[in-house]
Amino acid sequence: KTLIKKFLADPRIAKIFHHGSSDVDGFSKRLGAQVHGYSFDTEYASYLKYPFHRKHGLDAIAHTFFPEFADYKQMPRESAERRADGRLNFATVPLGLLAPYNCADAALTKVIELKTTRTDKRLGGFDAFPVSDAYVRVMTHAAFTIARMEQHGPLLDREHHVEVSRAM
Prior knowledge:
This protein is mostly helical. The protein is 53% helix and 7% strand. It has a two-stranded parallel ribbon with strand order 1-2. A two-stranded antiparallel sheet has the order 3-4. Strand 3 and strand 4 form a beta hairpin. The model has no long low-confidence stretch (mean pLDDT 85).
């Protein structure tokens, strides 16, 4: 636990997540860990690159662009127990399945990052056009605010809204 917290807190080590606003909050709540160096998010890069796609999860990206990773998300499903909310309890997945599953998650995330930010044609598939690192960084940081808004809704100053409505 201490080693993971040190790794997450080290700003010199770049961290790449897929839907990182959720992961960063989870590390904070479950481990009391602060994440520094969160520099890229593959979900937000996918959204910026292909806003017309309906799904931007790793599974959808793998099926569309990286068939060599297709169906890796199915690996733990046969052996994991379900929690009361229906989600998989990854604590019940045998280590022999969990390790390759996590490695595939990490490898796919890195491949997406490389193919999104590089315009080298040898990388293939996902680099139809590059996504600006600046756009991804803005989205990565804005995602924390957007996630809070999704949970609670935006705040509306009703008195100011009435005044603006009258003026318009």
